[in-house]
Amino acid sequence: MESFVKFAKQLRGSRECTTAEQREEMIREPPPHTQASSEIYQASFAQKMERSNEIKKESLTTPRRVDTPRGPLHKILSGIMQRNRTRIALVEASGKEHCYEEWSNSIQEMAVSIRNAYAKISGETLRNDTIIAVLGDRSGDTLTVCLSVMVAGAAYLPIDSSSPLGRKKALLKESKATCYSGRAVAEADLPLLSISNRPCKRRVLLNSNCVDDLGYVIYTSGTTGVPKGVCVKHDAILNMMTSSTVDFRMKPSDVTYQFTIFCYDNSVLEMFMTLANGAKLLVDDRPFLPRRFVELIDKHSITHCLLFPGVVSTFTSKHFRKLSDLRYWIVGAERLPQALLDTAIEFGINVIQNYGPTEMAAYALTKRMKNTDLGCNLGGPIQNTIMKVTDDDELWLKGKGQMRCYLGWDTIDILKSGGWYATGDRVRQLPNGDVLFLGRRDEQVKVRGHRVELGEIESLISGVTGVKQCKVVLEENEQRLLAFVTVSSALEDVEGKIQARCAEYLPSHMIPAQIMVLSAFPLTKNSKIDVQHLLEDWKASAKTVQLAVLAEKLLERHVDSGLSLLESGGATKEAIQLFRLYQQKYGSTLDLVTLFKCPLREVRQSEHSTEKYRTAGALSAAVDERLRKVWSKVLKRDDIQANDHFFFCGGNSLSLIKLRAEINREFNTVVDINNLLSGLEFREMVTTISSLSLRPRITTVILANEKSTTNLVFVHPLYGGTLSYTSLINALRTKSDFHIIGVQHPNSFGFVSEDLRFFDSVQSLAEQYANEVINLHGDVQQQFLLVDQQYYR
Fold first, then answer.
1. Are 217 and 408 in contact, with CB atoms under 8 Å apart?
2. Do the bridges between strand 421-429 and strand 435-440 make them parallel or antiparallel, or are there none, so unpaired?
3. 507, 33 in Cβ contact below 8 A?
4. Phi, psi at residue 524, to the nearest 5°?
5. Which has the closest alpha carbon to 164: 612, 632, 609, 616?
6. Which residue of 261, 499, 681, 761 lies most exposed, with the fewest beta carbons within 10 A?
7. How far is CA 186 from each of CA 161, 168, 189, 579, rounded to the nearest angstrom?
8. At 163, is the pLDDT very low, low, confident or very high (cuts 50, 70, 90)?
9. 239: how many CB neighbours lie within 10 A of its CB?
């Protein structure tokens, strides 16, 4: 017993000594900081690389050869569904369930409908490798269509119906799809396939598919270059089905949560790993929220889910602990932060690391993580897959899961000699065969002539206590490295700690020029970190910083960005000059109200910038954002989606009347109930409002006082907007008797919008503005209008 306790202490000791610094040592060599240490570094590194090369020569992986079914995929799926016909196959979050027999019948009937509809529009029988685009969303109906296309003998191309029109048209054109199903796409040159799953007389399918035929075509997200159509064979899908059964220990009683949008490859894994085992697939068409997901775990006894680290890092500690109720949390698509893995292991969460480009049918390497593993350990190959690491540390893959080709590309332009697929990922192979992810080859950037590994900087910063996630980006124009981090709430002086750590371990050219702490990372539709969004936020932040610099030049003295322009000694003249300078430099306008009322560092670009009113698409986007706020206010919920129906989201006839009033108030227009009833889905209502002649709002609430029964309204004079009343308004702010409103035409400081207004007299102008104020802010007992320093009552 004593020897056992001693052995346990030794194990605990070995765990404790695996510090962040020691982990870093395993995956990278510390860079030399001096000329003297440089020579020692070069010598020791050369020796280690020699040993590493020896390992590589001897450890070209031997594949786990496993027989996979050779029969047609549609027959195998049919057999699985028949064997499990009484089991629940598909569950929607609303509670609607479909057993395997019911789902199989729907798929078979829809497949017959697809073949018949295709014959009608083309005059030909549906052939193997025919590509049919499926426009849909995250729903059971969309998955049914995708499976029906495959069972009919074609390959499906998933397209998110909420994508911009230009994106949808481009995919339909580039893919050379013969037709498409789903909601009609304006100006599309392809025929729309009219299909149904109604019972039909003929249930026999003339499907001649073999394992080498196409099953689906998925376009890559484009995060590592130009989006490409990846063509995946039936054989690769069958290999995925048999391998995932073993790797994820799937059982018929399991429940898989469908997290991934159907147009990304992880959705294929989620669907087929479940189908292969007669298990249950839970599809939630509502936006992903940690609180809601935790509720679904309890309600449906979820056992498996694929969640990206970027998503899980937004969980509270309470919600994160709930992942321990799963059999496996499957991780993939982006780097797993070490701190997140350590916390997961500590909470008793079973973590499976999954790695695989879209070109290898969703996944190619896997590993069940242990408490001594590095977060960057990708594990080893799945069945019927082999890998090798080249001399320049690039990972190459080959096997049954490999794609056939890129759509429209010659295979010889894609694969290396011997049929290898080069992933573009840099790795280092361990003696046990596992590989450590070092970063993308395209993450190796040049900063002022120096080669820099962005992944190396991210790993170092992630080792700082309290840092949850890190993303380092190169800003090309100014050649500066930007580090974006999310941290635990208790961490203080995070920038200082990160700078100190970088200064200790990194040469000067690798130290980020700026560190930005975020509450959460912006994510793409595929829930990966949105790098473009990060750069746009940084640019907006940089413009705000420059505002204080411009103000200093105008006022010819130091300006504290914590003060407003008024507090810094500026007046109307300086405000106009600052407005114009900013517009000339950045092509956008400022919000003049906040310019005088708020600290300069908090001033943001005006919603009524010149560029936003130039295209109908931009106007529609602005309407979308503003209408979403109106819906949220009326319905008391924040998760409004494009396909939400007003009455199905808690709305009723009374709240529709309230919605109409709020829309008229927000958009300064007159919409009647019939306009709204013609399209009660959110996206339809956006179209309805966008088609109206909307004017930019001219009124701004300067001082809100909901208890007041009196509105005090200031109307702009001939020149300078309402800024000339700033002193008076500031004096009145101490009084609580007035609800103060400013009326300022958008073109007071130049033609910001195309809404030009001309009046015959001051009286006609006052009458028009009074009507707008009454419509937007209510007819109260007394109204005062101050026009060109004259009061009108």
1. no
2. antiparallel
3. yes
4. -75, 175
5. 616
6. 761
7. 12, 10, 9, 40
8. confident
9. 25
Instruction: Report the range of poorest mean pLDDT among 361-365, 379-383, 603-607, 654-658.
Output: 603-607
- Report strand pairing: 450-453 vs 710-715: unpaired
Please provide the CATH number assigned to the domain covering 448-529. 3.30.300.30
Coil, strand or helix at 707:
coil
Of 650, 640, 339, residue with least CA distance to 468? 339
Write out the residue limits of the CATH 3.30.300.30 domain(s) in the chain: 448-529
The residues pairing with 180 across neighbouring beta strands, listed in sequence order, are 133, 192
User: Could you tell me which CATH number the domain at 532-602 has?
Assistant: 1.10.1200
For 73-429, CATH number out of 3.40.50.150, 3.40.50.12780, 3.90.1010.10, 1.10.3720.10 equals: 3.40.50.12780
CATH class of 611-691: mainly alpha
Span(s) in the chain for CATH 3.40.50.12780 = 73-429
Q: Is the pTM for the entire model greater than 0.85?
A: no
Residue 548 is predicted with a pLDDT of 72
**Scanning the structure block, which residue is given the tokens 């007299």?**
761
**Contacts by residues 107-110 (CB-CB < 8 Å, ≥ 24 positions apart):** 107/144, 107/147, 107/148, 107/151, 107/197, 108/78, 108/151, 108/203, 108/205, 109/196, 109/197, 109/198, 109/199, 109/200, 109/203, 110/144, 110/145, 110/148, 110/195, 110/196, 110/197
Question: Is the pLDDT higher at 19 or at 537?
Answer: 537
Tokens of 217: 């075509």
What token pair was written down for 616? 């109908």
Residue 192 β-bridge partners: 180
Above 50 in pLDDT, residue 545?
A: yes
Q: Are 115 and 103 in contact (CB under 8 A)?
A: no
Cα separation, 62 vs 696, in Å, equals 67
- Residues contacting residue 722 through CB under 8 Å, at least 6 positions apart: 714, 715, 716, 742, 743, 744
Helix axes 762-777, 653-667, angle to 10 degrees: 150
Within a 10 A sphere around the Cβ of 462, how many other Cβ atoms?
A: 22
Sign of the Cα torsion 413, 416, 421, 426 reads negative
Determine the 3-state secondary structure of 720 from DSSP: coil
